[in-house]
Design brief:
Chain A: InterPro entries: Archaeal_gltB, Glu_synth_asu_C, Glu_synth_asu_C_sf, Glu_synth_lsu_3. Chain A: Residues 30-181 form the Glutamate synthase alpha subunit C-terminal domain. Chain A: This is Glutamate synthase family protein. The complex is a heterodimer of chains A (242) and B (373). In chain A, 15% of the residues lie in helices and 26% in strands. With 242 residues, chain A is α/β, with parallel strands linked by helices. Chain A has a domain at 92-230: Pectate Lyase C-like. The longest helix of chain A is centred in the C-terminal third of the chain and has 18 residues, at 196-213. The model of chain A has no long low-confidence stretch (mean pLDDT 96). With 373 residues, chain B is α+β, with helices and mostly antiparallel strands. Chain B has a single domain, classed as Aminohydrolase, N-terminal nucleophile (Ntn) domain (Glutamine Phosphoribosylpyrophosphate, subunit 1, domain 1), CATH 3.60.20. Chain B is 27% helix and 26% strand. In chain B, the strands form four sheets. A seven-stranded antiparallel β-sheet of chain B has the order 8-3-10-1-16-15-17. Chain B has a five-stranded antiparallel β-sheet with strand order 11-12-13-14-18, covered by helices on one side. Mean pLDDT of chain B is 92; it is low at 1-21. Classes of the chains: A alpha/beta (242), B alpha+beta (373). The A-B interface holds A 10, 34-35, 37, 53-57, 73, 75-76, 92, 94-95, 111, 113-114, 137-139, 162, 183 and B 23, 50-51, 53, 281, 323-324, 327, 329, 342-345, 347-348, 356, 358, 360-361.
Chain lengths: 242, 373
């Protein structure tokens, strides 16, 4: 189903999509998107949605199954509390992406903004994954409780990541390709070198990631990765305990 | 959603009109031709309308620079009056304080959802020589603005700069823009605001932009340091009467740049100074400057979440709080500089851009008029 979304309000657009999904439609191509919010939000079916233009905030919020492909930059709040599915962004993204994300994959070709993966979580097989190809802003993995985040810094910009990386982190794992000045790390993380097992873990995701964006997997793997783990699973256990 | 328009903040009862959760934050958008090319107001309306859902109909407004080229040496006062009596009192005051070269109603469209506006009147003013024995012209104008806002009941100055003006009110920004017939004005800088009032009432005088002389500010967020900033400004003769935190930002730029003669970059640094932990790591000279700035201008530091766009005669400045708690995107295309809360609001009017980026927290994006150099 192809929809010309020029000037369309997000409520109307998302209603058309929901109704079509309910009557069995499997594939959507949305043209002339300009800031419409919540695209793919709350959908439970394994449909495919291609977005042409800049989607609005909370793309794929509470999404549970679909694959969303964005052929542009995207804004804030992508994959907010997403449960499963896949979001592929052929550009850069804004702030607080993957907020409370609890499953599925979010692949970004370019840069990411502030507070990526804030309070991301996991439960048994539900392990959310975020990979960004460029750089990220401050508070990467803030209060992260689970899941896997990978930052590649492929565009050569420096620093790869902003300040306060993993502040309040108490679960999950962050991999960053290249070096990070310890000054930028939050107090709640320990910095290790990624070992063979780690590379095996992220290897399959990176292979998939490279296929989406036409990156060379060998080049991605040519540099060593650091691994950030939380020092404690209850970093604030004694806060406000007097 | 249809809202009552209210001039009097005392009458506000927000609980009455909020029936459901409204997914809003404020919206800001700004555009500038660094070559001073003037364009009409339709583009900025289109940009801010793209972010309709960030505001809730309780405030919208615009600032425009370059709109009165025929009278560019006179102070253009845009006034809002609750009633004819306030207008009369203010006009008596103006007659005494200025040479009033011209006054006229600000033309509006009255058929597009904006209801119950105040009396909107425009004055082109000159300062008589004999008023300037002991005070500079702009200090004199600043004082008269403070006097009108504080002392004349029901009269509010919407803007008071040269060759610029603010157009604001209660309503969605795109409705306010059409209400003020912005298609009839041509400007080299346009800024716009869609409001979602949080801590302060939604009333005509409290809509953004907030202005003083040629400064104008549109703001998304809140200034938690308002009390400290207000007390500091009061020591320099500013009176904060508009019940909205954003007012301090316009006055701080007036104080730091116009009166203390700081370069724009340093004024921005005073408002969003680097953290001490980062100052500790700076090179000697930079460290000395940053330390001195924090010591001297501790009371101008803005705390809390914000993204702002500041306009003035020679440029436009975008600034975020120090930990980026509000969104901001900037872009360039040829001589145009754009800033907005969302990328889509820029793409709505400029689909093909030379460059687009998210400014880092506490780092000013500065647009400059080339002829002003």
């Amino acid at each position: 189903m192809r929809i010309d979304a020029k000037g369309m309000h997000y409520r109307q657009l998302n209603k058309i999509i929901r109704d079509a999904v309910a009557s069995g439609e499997k594939e959507f191509e949305l043209d002339d998107i300009g800031g419409q919010r919540y695209i793919g939000g709350g959908l439970n079916e394994n449909v495919k949605i291609t977005v042409n233009g800049t989607p609005g905030n909370d793309l794929g919020a509470f999404m549970n199954g679909p694959r969303v492909i964005v052929n542009a930059n995207a804004q804030d709040g992508i994959a907010n509390t997403m449960n499963s599915g896949e979001i592929i962004i052929h550009g850069s993204v804004g702030d607080i992406i993957g907020y409370g994300m609890r499953g599925g994959k979010l692949y970004i070709k370019g840069d990411a903004g502030y507070r990526v993966g804030i309070h991301m979580k996991e439960y048994k097989k539900q392990v959310p994954v975020i990979i960004a190809g460029g750089t990220a802003g401050d508070f990467f993995g803030e209060y992260m409780a689970g899941g896997i985040m990978v930052l590649l810094g492929m565009n050569g910009k420096s620093p790869i990541v902003g300040d306060y990386v993993g502040t309040g982190m108490h679960g999950g794992v962050i991999y960053i390709r290249g070096e990070v000045d310890p000054y930028h790390l939050g107090k709640e993380v320990s910095c290790l070198e990624a070992n063979e097992e780690d590379m095996k873990l992220i290897g399959s995701y990176l292979k998939e990631y490279c296929e989406h964006f036409g990156f060379d997997l060998n080049e991605v793997m040519s540099k060593s990765f650091i691994k950030l783990l939380p020092l404690s699973h209850r970093p604030y256990g004694n806060l406000y305990v007097y | 959603m249809k809202c009552d328009n209210l001039m009097n903040p005392e009458k506000i009862n927000p609980s009455r009109r909020v029936h459901q959760r409204i997914p809003s934050g404020c919206a800001i958008s700004g555009m500038m031709s660094e070559e001073g090319r003037c364009i009409d107001g339709r583009a900025v309306i289109k940009s801010i309308a793209c972010m309709h859902n960030r505001s809730n109909g309780l405030g919208g407004g615009f600032a425009a620079y370059g709109i009165y080229p025929q009278r560019k040496d006179q102070y253009a006062f845009h006034m809002m009056y609750d009633n004819a009596e306030a207008k009369e009192t203010t006009e008596e005051f103006f007659k005494d304080a200025f040479n009033v070269d011209k006054d006229e109603p600000i033309l509006t469209h009255r058929d597009n959802g904006v209801s119950n506006p105040p009396i909107l009147w425009r004055y082109f003013l000159e300062v008589p020589e004999n008023k300037l024995d002991l005070i500079s012209e702009r200090d004199y104008v600043m004082k008269t603005v403070m006097s009108v806002n504080s002392d004349i009941e029901g009269a509010y100055v919407a803007s008071s700069g040269k060759n610029m003006g603010a157009f604001k009110g209660v309503g969605y920004p795109e409705d306010i823009g059409r209400f003020y017939r912005l298609e009839d004005y041509s400007a080299y800088i346009w800024t716009a605001h869609g409001r979602f009032p949080t801590n302060t009432p939604g009333w005509w005088g409290g809509a953004h932009p907030f202005t003083l002389l040629d400064w104008s500010v549109v703001h998304n967020g809140e200034i938690s340091s308002y009390g400290i900033n207000k007390r500091y400004l009061e020591m320099f003769g500013y009176r904060l009467e508009l019940r909205t935190d954003t007012e301090v930002i316009a006055y701080l730029f007036d104080l730091l740049v116009r009166r203390h003669k700081l370069p724009i970059e340093k004024a921005a640094m005073a408002l969003t100074s680097p953290f001490w932990k980062d100052i500790d790591r700076m090179e000697h000279e930079q460290k000395k400057i940053a330390t001195a700035m924090r010591q001297v201008y501790g009371s101008t530091l803005l705390n809390g979440p914000f993204s702002i766009i500041l306009g003035h005669s020679n440029g436009m400045i975008g600034l975020n709080d120090r930990i980026k708690l509000r969104p901001m995107t900037a872009a360039r295309k040829d001589d145009m500089l754009y800033m907005a809360s969302e990328e889509s609001a820029i793409r709505a009017i400029a689909p093909d851009l030379d460059e687009i980026w998210s400014p880092r927290a506490g780092t000013a994006v500065i647009g400059r008029l080339s002829e002003a150099e």
